[in-house]
Please model this.
Amino acid sequence: MRARASVFSKLLVNVYRSTLQVTMSNKFREEWPGVSQTQSGSPLVSGEPDISLTRLLRDLLASWYIIIAGVFFIVLLVSGYMWLVKPKYTAEIRVFPNSEIQEQLQFGAGGLTASLNPFRSSGVEEATVLERYIAAITSIGVAEKLMTMPEIVHTVFASQWDAAGQQWHPPGGLVASLKSVLRRAYGLPGWESPDARDLSGYIDRNVLVTAFTVKGSTKNIGYMLSYSSKDPVFAKRFLSQLHNEANLLVLQQERSRALERAAYLQERLEQARTKQVVETLSELLIENERKLMMMSIDDNFAAMPLEPVQVSKQPTSPKPLNLLFLAVVLGSVIGVGIVVIRNVLSAGS
Model:
């Protein structure tokens, strides 16, 4: 830190010195046209003023009120922003693979079992159930399910919903008006009421998915989903419903695959001629039925939550201390810049 501060102070002094040199040189040319600044190697007018870090600090200290005014102005703006902006709360849920389900879904490990499994692709590693759950979070299928829930849709797209008239309307505001003008100018489609694609994009932008690992290991053991909203109750409800619908979508897909397997295995069993093939197909049918039974009793099929959705007690955005620190730094920089520019202009006048 000291080394960086030293480099910064030297750079500031050099910039200050160079600016004053140019200013004084121009002033000399204006007052003494045709006269050289040096004669026989001796300077007639000092082209390099006595500028040092001490001189710079003295100038800054003498103009302390300008720096304080800059800091006060920026802090005032930031304080107004924090007062006007409604704070947001963050809901989080940590999910892990359902190990029991994952083991049961390892269908067709090898040998005759693998050869009888038409759903097992060779050379391509199949995504785990948890990975498919993460992909389902932003899927159109999940968004379509959420679009049937008015309490969610009307809150997410509150700027386009008229609660009194119970109808959708174009969003208001300057930005929305400019977008509308540009769309018409370029011949693009106009505003349409929100649909599943809009909700899917909203989820993609606002729901953060983070993988986490055990300390000392690089292997992902689960994921954390987080969502922020001005209403902590809605944040919890939205993330809980999103988790449930993504789980349900993967469950329905896997149940459909299991039913297809059952039909296929039943057909092969009717065509079997040897005792070994009959026994193998019978075992696979029993295993497949066990999977179907587990799908009907396990609510958290694809992702097992460590605990229910949790919401922060305190607002997570905006962060007052961080904003005030940045305001003080920015205000100080602006104040110092004003002092330096003023002194340079004074030296040139």
